[in-house]
Specification:
Number of helices: 11
Strand content: 15-25%
Largest sheet: 8 strands, parallel, barrel
Strand order of the largest sheet: 1-2-3-4-5-6-7-9
Structural class: alpha/beta
Distance between the termini: 12 Å
Oligomer: single chain
Shape: globular
């Protein structure tokens, strides 16, 4: 089995009966725990107009997390690039890299991270995104280059900064793009698993080596909920199931505590849809988690698994990441 790193994707989840200030404190505490557990990186995702997710000002939150940690890489998983000017993102991440040298990642995606009405409020033009998104990546690369010093438009800070760019996606389009640009590829298997196998195959087969990334590099994002017992893990998972059921219903309320019986909440069609979306979820005790990760890795041979844990109680969430680290360590024993 190919060895792999593990990382954290944090959505800065807002929970019922908690404040957003609580959310940010919990995110920082989780990042510190992940650092102590030797996780590779801690990424935050841009979303908008969702009462359950507080990472809308992603660059600001990255700075908060990086300032409160020492060594772990911190970045975006991702910045939804068509929501922004390429120059502004280059300046923001150039500032972050200047403050925290050698620790900042820039993952970029083309989705809005929100609904259509809010996407319009963000100033997106849906007619040219497929053409504009690749152009924006090229613009970022140009702004970060030392050669851009002769350009009439410069990113200060940003110019000359060594900030790795990762292409995020949930389709084959993103796989083709990442391969063509010679960039690492992160796939959103935690909510869009259908095209993952094909996307990985396309990415590897068509990869064009680049100076910074001579070999393809794949990150698979998956859901992970671990606990001391199987029963406890399954109950903790009901927070995740409620969250995705609410998405189907277009109800973006804060995350709810776990329940004893999901069948009292979702109907059979919702259940089938949610479980299909969440098919790449590792749930259980340490041995179960280790076996699930081994099976997944034997199938996909990724370089890194990025784990996102929708767990209501913060201590249980931290514990889950501890168990994941133990599970991965057991695979190499």
């Amino acid at each position: 089995m190919k060895k792999f790193d593990i990382s954290v994707l944090d959505l800065a989840p807002v929970k019922q009966n908690k404040t957003i200030h609580d959310t940010f404190n919990d995110s920082l505490d989780l990042a510190r725990a992940a650092e102590n557990l030797d996780y590779k990186r801690f990424w935050l995702a841009e979303h908008h107009n969702m009462a359950s997710i507080a990472s809308s000002a992603t660059s600001v939150l990255i700075g908060y997390i990086a300032n409160g940690t020492e060594n772990i890489r911190v970045g975006s998983g991702g910045i939804m690039l068509p929501n922004h000017s390429s120059l502004v993102i280059a300046e923001q991440f150039g500032t972050l890299e200047s403050l925290f040298p050698g620790r900042i990642d820039l993952g970029v995606g083309r989705a809005p991270g929100t609904d259509g009405v809010t996407a319009k409020a963000l100033g997106r033009n849906p007619m040219n995104i497929n053409q504009h998104f690749p152009q924006q990546i090229r613009e970022l690369q140009q702004y970060f280059s030392t050669e851009n010093s002769e350009s009439p438009v410069r990113a200060i800070p940003g110019e000359g900064c060594d900030i790795p760019i990762y292409v995020l996606g949930s389709s084959t389009d993103s796989a083709w793009l990442a391969a063509d640009f010679g960039l690492p590829y992160a796939f959103a298997g935690h909510f869009a698993p259908e095209m993952m196998a094909v996307a990985f195959e396309l990415y590897r087969a068509n990869y064009q080596p680049s100076e910074k990334f001579p070999e393809p590099y794949i990150i698979a994002c998956v859901n992970g909920i671990a606990a001391e017992t199987e029963a406890e893990a399954k109950k903790l998972t009901t927070t995740l199931h409620q969250a995705f059921t609410n998405l189907i219903r277009n109800d973006r309320k804060p995350y709810a505590p776990p329940v004893d019986d999901m069948d009292e909440i979702w109907n059979p069609m919702e259940k089938a849809h949610v479980l299909n979306m969440l098919r790449y979820s590792f749930i259980g005790g340490k041995e179960t988690i280790a076996n699930q990760m081994k099976q997944f890795q034997n199938m996909f041979q990724v370089d890194e698994m990025m784990i996102t844990s929708h767990i209501y109680e913060h201590d249980a969430r931290v514990k889950s990441y501890e168990i994941f680290r133990e599970a991965v360590n057991s695979l190499s024993e």
